[in-house]
Design brief:
The chain is built from nine helices and ten strands. The protein is an alpha+beta fold. The radius of gyration is 30 Å and the shape is elongated.
Amino acid sequence: MRGRTVAWIPPLVMLVAIAMLDWFTAGTFRTISWVVLVPGIAAAICGLWGTITVAVLAVVTYELEDRAWPHQYRTGLPDFILVVLGGLLAVLACAVRLRGERRMLHMQDIVETTRRAVLRPLPPGWGGLDHAAVYLAADSLARVGGDFYDIQPGPRGTRVLLGDVQGKGLGAVAVAAALLGTFREAAYHEPLLGTVADRLEVRMRRHIRYGAAIGRDEDDRFATAVLFGFPPDDPAHVEFINFGHEPALVVTPGGVRSLPSGGRLPLGLGDLDGGRPSCPLRVPLAPGETLLLVTDGVSEARDTTGCFFPLRDRVARAVAEDPRAAEPGRLVRLVRDGTLRHCGGRLDDDTTIFALRRPRTPGGM
């Protein structure tokens, strides 16, 4: 409260209440021994020195009040030993709790560092695009999973990648990190979007072979993804290659339309497609029109009756009611809140919502 801890108040109030109850009851019903509970409460919510202080106060209160009673009504040495041992055990429990909390905070720092390494923060206007993103991990403690996205500006225009690795756990995180590392280099250096896509496919296969070499069974590992290129000499179109991912939506104040699926197999399964080179599709996308990209945490979110989240209908209705809903920030919040309400806050898979558009006025980095 106002920067000061008030955790000491509950055990202190309980200590005073027990002492008063003991004082105003008959000598045949003594309650002062109940103060043994007070250090345990302090151990659960207070710091180490606060717990030590409460334990000492409990012993002092017990001794002073017990001595105030006539000899025949005193609880005596056994209860005094009980209160002392209770205080010592409470201090020990508090020390163990604080050690566990410090370890947990350290692990959270490691997780946050890992998350930022995989999903780096994107500055406003990065790559000349207005953008907004929300990432919700199915594991609220891990806070990172197999979804990935990034924007990479380069000499041949800005490239965008969003994908979802099959499976969960550290294996999925490792795949996401490998693909993002390849994307950031290839998207900057390669002149053709198809070459960037081919390098992602090769990187996925190399990762699978490496996993097999070190004894990890990743033969069935793959990743769905969608790769976009924004040609600098054609602001009215966008190129994209879809590797088995959910088709992107184009959201405008006038409505919602879907982009073609693309017809490519997920990354890692290119051999089943004959190993043919990637060829991007070019579609109209005017400045101010927003691309909405999501992973299957949105498209496969179910309510209590098993119905999927109607993404396109919800977005279309929102844009019809308020054309400003097509702005990336508003759109991402709309989809996030709608998804969480639809599934009751229970996410079965990692969820990424990514919205971006060329601004109507030139700018960005």
